[in-house]
Write a structure and sequence with these properties.
By secondary structure, the protein is an alpha+beta fold. The protein has one helix at 2-14; strands spanning 22-26, 38-44, 62-68, 71-77.
Length: 89
């Protein structure tokens, strides 16, 4: 498992994701928060090694890195659900 996490981390670092201070998972009603972020870089889930992909139609399936209210943030635009076949573990 650690091998997979390291591969994902190295990919994201190579794309410019560096040391976020805050992590946010956008859900219903929070999608507009993306418009407030000064985006540095985005990565589609399907391009990130070992990362699951969002299957819900309206979930964008992107990881966003940028500035929000003076903080470096990483934002999940699209989340994963048990009914999509993902484990709770």
């Amino acid at each position: 498992m650690l091998k997979y996490i390291n591969e994902s981390t190295e990919y994201l670092k190579s794309k410019g994701f560096e040391n976020p201070e805050v992590g946010i998972i956008l859900g219903t009603g929070l999608g507009q928060l993306k418009d407030e972020i000064e985006i540095i870089v985005e990565a589609s889930y399907n391009h990130i090694p070992n990362f699951p992909t969002a299957t819900v139609e309206f979930h964008k399936g992107k990881l966003i890195y940028g500035n929000l209210a003076g903080k470096k943030v990483v934002v999940m635009q699209g989340r994963f659900h048990v009914y999509e076949g993902y484990s709770l573990q």
